Amino acid sequence: MMRLISFAKYMVVIISVLGMTSCIDDEQPVYNPVHNQTGGGNGDNPENPDDEEEEDVDIDLSKWELVWEENFNGTDRESLKEKWDIEDNNGSSSILSTRRPENVKLSGEGTLKLVAKHEEDAGKQYSAGSIFTKETFKYGYFECRYRYAEVEGTNNSFWMFTSPVTFEIDINEGKYPNIVGMNVHDHVSNPKRSDGASWTYNPQVKSAYSYSFDMAAPIKTKKIRFSTEKKEHFHMREFRIYKNNTAGYPEELETNVVEKEAELGLNNLAKTAKITVSGYYKGFEKSEANLCDDDIKTRFVSQKEGDKYIEFVWSEEQEIGNVQFLNGYIKEDGTYDNLVDNYKLEYWDGQKWAVFSSMDARDSMADDNLGQYHIYGLEWNEEELIYYFDHKIIRKVENKWCNGPASLWLSLAIIKWGGAVVPEDIDGKFMEVDYVRVYKQ
Ligand SMILES: [Ca+2]
Ligand SMILES: [Ca+2]
Fold first, then answer.
1. What is the distance in A from the centroid of ligand 2 to the CA of 73?
2. Hey, which residues does 70 pair with through a beta bridge?
3. Cystine design at 250: which of 161, 254, 303, 343 (Cβ 3.0–4.6 Å)?
């Protein structure tokens, strides 16, 4: 399945495979108790564009009764205090900002602004803002129309928390330009349980986890190079380079590639090359051995900063007809994560590097980012948590531990794991909220 082959040299290729791809760019490349799957993803698979249920999953609000709303029509901060408490604290140790009332503003045009500032405050370099409802809610449908602060390094949150905190529902923890993060945490058990997922939002541009390139004409070279400007680390699970072969090539996801190669009279030339890589992510030292071990689960993980590449070098010239790679890592539910959103494949033509395939999803992502308004929703009942994006279901999980009254929170924070933190870019940017609504059935 999911195979797209081949093109002329130098052609820029964007491969469309997944309906929505997940992309967790977190501190840890493997299992992260805060942001990763634990439950094996019950319910709809948001990555499966063929999901039959997808057609009729819109929330039907005519079946719900509006019981609470905030439209932010006031002009002064004090007016908020009828329904909301405003945080004034140093923020948790995991974030880079404090939270101050001065950063909570009503625009006078029907919106709330949570403003980020670059300033020395209580030992931190930034301040931001956060509010939560005085009223608590248990079960119902909750939604918020808001847009992210248009800058990386921010967490733009619409949350539910109990007090004291026993559980947390992240209706969305959003990161600019286009990460939607929906999660649920149990703060009572030890170790804490979580069940979360993140998506890269973009309806047009999709990344794939496997690629295969047939050369229009065989390439003669001693060197092949893969590189990416992906933020954070990249994961490469398998890399295959084949000689020109009229009998064809294995499928990237072939379950027994070694057998198939033998059948086709092929060897993976990556195995005979000297492999050079950019730095490693911690815990993945010398992991280039995983690039061609015929196991799609083992992987090379690059360093987070600086150059990110893999180079294959042979002492003799090779005639290459096909290159394949499988990237990202496989989550417990079998879906793939942390896919590259840009790459270049090049060969050495004797004088210089020449590109034979490249992909860059970054530009078009910026054209349709979450700095524009979208509606983030949660249907919460005794059995399930159902997450909505613009009224469409994108996630369903079993409700295992959220059965008490919780407040709704709106919160902006400066964080280390949401892209580059650039002080002058962050200063003055704001998360802007149009409304919050609560419905009961
Ligand atoms: Ca491998
Ligand atoms: Ca409004």
1. 6
2. 436
3. 254
CA distance 141 to 53: 20
To which residue do tokens 């408490």 refer? 85
Check residue 46 and give its pLDDT: 34
Q: Which residues surround ligand 2, an ion (CB under 5 A)?
A: 71-72, 110, 434-435
Residue 237 has pLDDT above 50, yes or no: yes
Q: What is the pLDDT of residues 187-196, one digit of tens each?
A: 988 777 777 7
Is pLDDT larger for residue 116 or for residue 22? 116
Ligand 1 mean position to 287 CA, how many Å? Answer: 9
Is 191 exposed, middle or buried (CB count within 10 Å of its CB: 0-12, 13-18, 19+)? exposed
Closest by CA position to 282, among listed 338, 337, 232: 232
| Ligand 2 mean position, distance from CA 101 (Å) | 20
Provide CB contacts within 8 A for 50, sequence distance 6+. Answer: none
Cβ(292)–Cβ(271) below 8 Å:
yes
- In 3D space, the residue among 221, 315, 235, 204 whose CA is nearest the CA of residue 23 turns out to be 235
Asked if 104 and 86 count as a contact pair (C-beta separation under 8 A), the reply is yes
Is 415:149 a contact under the CB 8 Å cutoff?
no
What is the pLDDT at residue 198? 62
Smallest-distance ligand from the CA of 434: 2
CA–centroid distance, residue 193 to ligand 2 (Å): 35
- How far does residue 235's CA lie from ligand 1's centre (Å)? 10
User: How many residues are given for the chain?
Assistant: 441
CB atoms within 10 A of CB 233: 23
Specify the range with the lowest mean pLDDT, choosing from 196-200, 210-214, 244-248, 352-356: 196-200
Distance (Å) from CA 85 to ligand 2 centroid: 18
d(CA 228, CA 326): 14
Q: Provide the pLDDT for residue 434.
A: 98
Ion ligand 1 — residues with CB < 5 Å: 237-238, 290, 293, 295, 298
Between CA 199 and CA 416 the distance in angstroms is: 18
Residue 180: Cβ within 10 Å count:
25
Strand order in the sheet with 124-128: 97-99, 124-128, 117-121
3-state secondary structure of 70: strand
Tens digit of pLDDT for each residue in 37-74?
Answer: 222 222 233 333 333 334 446 899 999 999 999 999 99
Give the pTM.
0.58
